[in-house]
Amino acid sequence: MLVLSACSLPARAAEAARGWQPGDHHVHSEWSVDWDRSTNPPTPVPGGDSRYTRTRNAQVAQGNGLVWMVHTDHGGPGHSMVNRDRAWPALQEARRAVPGLIQFYGMEFDVPAAEHASLVIAPGPDEREQLFAIERDYSRGEPIPPATRDEEQQMLDALAYMRTLSPLPLMFINHPSRTASGFGSWGEVEPRELRAWHDAAPRVLVGMEGAPGHQGAGVHRGLYRDANAPTMGGFDQMTAQVGGVWDAMLAEGRHFWITATSDSHVNVRDGGRDFDPGQYSKTYVWARPEAGDILDGLRDGRMFAVTGDLVDALDLQVHGAGNDRATMGGTLALAAGAPMRITLKVRQPKAANHQGQHPALRHVELIVGEADKDGTPKMRTRRFEAPQFQREGDWQVVSWTLPAPAQGGFVRARGSSTGEAVPLPDVAGEDPWQDLWFYSNPVFVENVAVSR
Fold it and tell me: Where does the record place the region Disordered (predicted)?
């Protein structure tokens, strides 16, 4: 349990060295190859899904203010050897060329019986072989046709293997509702699968994209092509709907986080549907600017997701009696019904965003959830308009005091540049730069009995 008043002096020193580190865990390069299927096995053709080199992506990411980035190319038949023998040397070249950017090795893993996930490998002497073994033995796209690997159990087997590795890899499910056919009508990723995967390796598979990439797609934002199941304010319906899938998982006590990524393949200025890493979407991690602490922050939920540089710092705290408080990813113990004070502080950047705008923050919303008697999430919310914000230097602040959930629960927050009380379904042709949101990750509240 993270209760800040109980931190030791070394822990306080480590905390003091942390700051908000922006990054992106879903970026493609020329090693998201096409395949010449006239040969057996198929021959990889570099540049199939993206024309950009890893060095170019790293340079652009750093230029857009990112501190960290994950290289995540698609798989395919025999792609484990492409990653090992060609993409890996390209990563080393990018690390040499852009030493100021923390660059993680990874891939967009083809999930058996589902779709895609960002797989992040911890830097170290074994990272090349660790990814090679995972992709070779477990990726859905790896077998040479006509062989297949597309059973639900195979994903559970993959996670069972990954949880034995040291250091542990990390995984986020990408664009979870992209294949849905309606609100609550799931496609290749179902809530029961998210739960099963999280149960199988809760310290490996730790979350999902809250805001998918491809935000520059003019017709289908995020490439969510079914008009009955679009993104909502650029965020996936599982995240955007209060009381929806994400809230249901949090109400169960699951430490399951959300992020925002570019899913960069080809930039809109080059005729594509994407923004560059850091150009539109960012995941900010509270960490020291070093790979290990950034991975810990991603694994432990010390992060928030934002589009269009609406905010660049966020402090969500839940306070109990005295000095006891917890922040994102942490847990605060409170007696049922005890006063619980929520404070949210956000900071907006002084510099213009990459569209040359200084977007206004029109409103924020504090969201409290708990499990109802039937297990479904019971939600309470409070919305604050901009005139209600308090100013503390560069920070805009709101607070709300209410009774702690009787059986424990969670607190999260979001805000927007729009006047929409809740994010509306996205429509063809809308300008993503006029529809900006941030979402925090949760703080948990644990119920404790009152001693008599």
Answer: 31-51
**Cβ contacts of residue 76 below 8 Å, gap of 6+?**
33, 35, 42, 44, 82, 141, 142
- The token pair that represents 223 in the structure block: 């490439």
State pTM to two decimals: 0.96
What is the residue type of 138? Y
What does the alpha-carbon distance between residue 163 and residue 184 come to, in Å, rounded to a whole number? 30
> What residue has token string 């959300």?
258
The count of C-alpha atoms lying within 13 angstroms of the C-alpha of 142, restricted to the half-sphere facing its C-beta, is 22
**Cβ proximity of 281 and 260 under 8 Å:** yes
SS (H, E, C) 285-338: EEECCCHHHHHHHHHHCCEEEEECCCCCEEEEEEECCCCCEEECCCEEEECCCC
Cβ atoms within 10 A of the Cβ of 337, count?
Answer: 13
Domains of the chain: which residue ranges? 4-447
- What backbone phi and psi angles, to 5 degrees, belong to 201? -155, 75
Cis peptide preceding 167, ω within 30 of 0: yes
CA distance 128 to 84: 6
**Sign of the Cα pseudo-torsion (82, 86, 90, 92, in order):** positive
Residue-level length of the chain: 452
CATH 3.20.20.100 fits 4-447, yes or no: no
Q: What are the E-state strand segments in 146-280? A: 170-173, 205-211, 257-260
Peptide bond into 146 cis (omega under 30): yes
Helix orientation angle between 152-162 and 127-138, rounded to the nearest 10 degrees:
160
d(CA 146, CA 37): 12
Other CB atoms within 10 Å distance of the CB of residue 37 = 11
Q: Scan for tokens 């890996």, then name that residue.
A: 88
Structure tokens at 243: 């009381």
pLDDT in tens, the chain (452 residues): 344 555 566 777 778 899 999 999 999 999 999 999 999 999 999 999 999 999 999 999 999 999 999 999 999 999 999 999 999 999 999 999 999 999 999 999 999 999 999 999 999 999 999 999 999 999 999 999 999 999 999 999 999 999 999 999 999 999 999 999 999 999 999 999 999 999 999 999 999 999 999 999 989 999 999 999 999 999 999 999 999 999 999 999 999 999 999 999 999 999 999 999 999 999 999 999 999 999 999 999 999 999 999 999 999 999 998 889 999 999 999 999 999 999 999 999 999 999 999 999 999 999 999 999 999 999 999 999 999 999 999 999 999 999 999 999 999 999 999 999 999 999 999 999 999 999 999 999 999 875 54
Sign of the torsion angle spanned by Cα atoms 80, 86, 87, 88 = positive
Burial of 411 (C-beta count, 10 Å sphere; 0-12/13-18/19+): buried
